[in-house]
Design a protein that fits this description.
The complex is a heterodimer of chains A (319) and B (359).
Chain A (H helix, E strand, L loop, with lengths): L1 H15 L8 H14 L1 H18 L1 H4 L46 H37 L1 H16 L2 H12 L3 H27 L3 H8 L4 H37 L11 H7 L9 H28 L6
Helix pairs in contact in A: 1-8, 1-10, 2-12, 3-5, 3-12, 5-6, 5-8, 5-10, 5-12, 6-8, 7-8, 8-10, 9-10, 10-11, 10-12, 11-12
Chain B lengths: L1 H28 L4 H6 L5 H10 L6 H13 L5 E2 L4 E2 H36 L4 H14 L3 H15 L22 H4 L8 H11 L2 H8 L2 H38 L2 H8 L4 H38 L5 H10 L3 H29 L1 H5 L1
Antiparallel strand pairs in B: 1-2
The chains are: A mainly alpha (319), B mainly alpha (359).
Chain lengths: 319, 359
Amino acid sequence: MLTNKQAIEQLEALAADQSLLTEKPLSQGRLAMKRFRGRKSGMIGLAIVMFLVLVAIFAPLIAPYDPDDVLIGEVDNITRRAPPCIHVLGCDPELPQHILGTDGNTRDQFSRIVYGSRVSLTLGLFTVTLALVVGTSLGAVAGYTGGWLDNVIMRIMDVVLGFPSLLLAITIVSVFGPGLRNALIAIAVVSIPAYARVMRAQVLAIKETDYVSAARALGAAPRQILLRRVIPNAMTPLVVLATLGIATAILEAAGLSFLGLGAQPPLAEWGSMLASERNQVFTSPHLVFFPGLAIMITVLGFNLIGDGLRDALDPTLNR
Amino acid sequence: MLSFIVRRTLSAIPVLLGIIVVVFFLIRAIPGDPCTAMLGEQATPEGCARFNEANGLDEPTLVQLGIYMGDVATLDLGDSIRFSQPVNQLLVERLPLTIELAFSALMIAVLVGVPLGVLAARKHNTAIDSGTMAFANVGVSMPVFWLGLMLAYFFAVILKDTPFALPPSGRLSAGTISEPYYEIWGWDVGEEGFWAKLHEFIGNHVIFNSFITGQWSVFSDAIKHMILPAVALATIPLAIIARITRSSLLEVMGKDYIRTARAKGAKEGRVVRSHALRNSLLPVVTIIGLQLGLLLGGAVLTETVFNLSGVGRALFDAITGRDYAIVQGFTVVIASGYVVVNLLVDLSYAYLDPTIRVE
């Protein structure tokens, strides 16, 4: 969450630095790619995320059971909340193999976690796309037009930023009713100001550049200048912010699900899996441990990529 | 400096007003009304009419907003419908817990995070540096509720019957009572009125109260109960503070005046302490201020996990229970706290960086 706010400040400073705009975009991009590849942590993050994407795509092949299948009566000797049992590691061959154990409804936890990757990756991408589109549009309009519209938009953003983000998300979900879709919208809304602020700072810097003046002198319409010249050149720091935003979104969605406001049972979502078994943490810790670990690894992957991108795109931080 | 304080304070007022208005309308947009939430089956039209009249909910919304604004200006936050208590009384009872929790977490985050960041920067590009940063990366990626549950399991189950066992829930052990300082010292503060409530509020800070009155068994019990929630809540801010301290110190260490200090023959430890650290603390202070919002959000989850009755948990229950007065009152208080802390951050900026004062 706050990694973002800190990132915003850095990116705003970066955006205000006009000298970065004078280099050729192409070579800058190639340079950044090269720098990113040189960062070990960024590449580890990329590997984690690629791995998760593959898990999500091939979930039906990886998961031994259907995530929502209640296995009692279907599998012999199955028990509720059975601890992990792996035969090659010496687990009693009489017992069914469940490498991460079973949950309170005798569903296979490993299968649920594998399918959960689909939910978390989708919600991360969806939330950030929504926030990115709305936030950058607002920021671009505010920065480009200036005046009262700028003032109104940015004061509204200040009010949104004045709330602790999770509390505002809780309130928004209460208005629209609990559920994964509304949780996504709530998380997107609370992260809009971050994108708007960075985009506005970018646009303020770019609109004074020579190529924008040139386009204006050639008689291009403001809308065309904004869409063709300004926004494409302003996207670099927003890419970083968006990557870190995916991490935040997954974490906040898990938090909302944990409070019962996000994904609803029986959907295999990590936060709600953890929530439904939290009272059993002292007797069946594996049902809390593994979903949480899955959340952590996913969030870590996106955080590492985001950091790697930031270092790659900002040479001054790269030491 | 004075005009800076005044200007900065005034600029916070529109944001605060905006927050009050937004919350006022948001909570009224929530489907379901307080009457049905409270009376349940007995919510007949007549019953509801009487209920709404008794709670001032029969006025037009804008009139309600006007009345509410007037009340807030006189520090009256209204009555909770669920608890049949003034919101102020609930704040007196619950806010101290959240303050102590957030403050403990912030202390842990700063006292561990800053030294870790300094260490990583001093040992730049060594195993210590990468180890610390790997730890920080994992720290920011952890769901606070998961960490809380895992800590509770580890310290209450695995370490049970060892000296390191810690209680997994609650604020004090059953039977342990913290006597407020004014009773111990025989002060007559009365029952009602602003000063009585203020004393009650201060006395409800159990750790602080037991410390100043020397109730050591209560104090150690309260500390033991606070460790796990505070550590869980501190982890993300700690990791962020360590990262910022490191990168900020590294940046300052590359400045010319550091080279000058070294060229004068100053020892490395002195260069870091007297030249680099103070200058690198600016971004760290900003981040610490910004952490407060995170701590308050995290407090909802932490208080849920550790069964603590603070404002975070109460606010969550109030939102789901349509208790308008609590949601409005608590949000106003939380947002004001946020604004005040950011004001303090700006002022400490002026202290740390004299050039800001000159401007």
